[in-house]
Amino acid sequence: MKPSHIEHIGIAVKSLDAAIPFYEQLLGSPCYAIEEVAEQRVKTAFFKIGQTKIELLESTDPEGPVGKFIEKKGEGIHHIAFAVKGLEEQLEKAKEAGIQLIDARPRKGAEGLDIAFLHPKSTFGVLTELCEDKNKPE
Ligand code: CMX
């Protein structure tokens, strides 16, 4: 798939209000965006570190993916997201290679990116996201 870089690391937290000041201090830069992704039942907060972002995820519903994750495993790294080109073709290739897709087709995620998840059962236990920013100039 040859991703260009790690687009972001998603970290599940119980409270954005509690976690944001820590990450602002750790990274030495302010949280630059807070966005609710209603479809995913999360509220997200973003920080930049080089080309990569840290995405804090607070659940808005205990039955949503992050709510269930925190209930089962507690706070911590939830997923890793790789920036790819040609997401649709990459998903086809992943499927052909026998990787279990959570999203068979790209959908819209935070910050307007096209995203798709690969199942952690197929990726050595790490929930893996592929994403493409179609608005980014080449
Ligand atoms: N990382 C690693 N493993 C995970 C995981 C995660 N984030 N979430 C669940 N799992 C594991 C579970 O521990 C479980 O393993 P065992 O069978 O060994 O116990 C297995 O995956 C299945 O878990 P489950 O609880 O039965 O299934 P869920 O209903 O929780 O679904 C998953 C898990 C990954 C399919 C679901 O969370 C999903 O579709 N995730 C993609 C969407 C998402 O995470 N959205 C939130 C972020 C959105 C954003 O960034 O904008």
Description:
A hairpin with a 4-residue loop joins β2 and β3 (42-49). The protein is built from three helices and eight strands. It is globular, with a radius of gyration of 15 Å. Strands 2-3-4-1-5-8-7-6 form an eight-stranded mixed β-sheet. The longest helix has 12 residues, at 16-27. The protein is an alpha+beta fold and 138 residues long. It has a single domain (5-132), classed as Roll (2,3-Dihydroxybiphenyl 1,2-Dioxygenase, domain 1). Carboxymethyldethia coenzyme *A (CMX) binds at residues 10, 37, 40, 42, 44, 55, 57, 65-66, 68-69, 72, 78-79, 102, 109-110, 117, 119-120, 125, 127.
Which SSEs are present, and which pair or pack?
Blueprint: E1 5-13, H1 16-27, E2 33-37, E3 42-49, E4 52-59, H2 65-73, E5 76-83, H3 87-96, E6 107-108, E7 114-118, E8 128-132
Per the principal axes of the C-alpha atoms, what is the gross shape? globular
CATH architecture: Roll
Determine the strand fraction and express it as a percent band: 35-45%
The kinds of small molecule bound in this structure are: carboxymethyldethia coenzyme *A
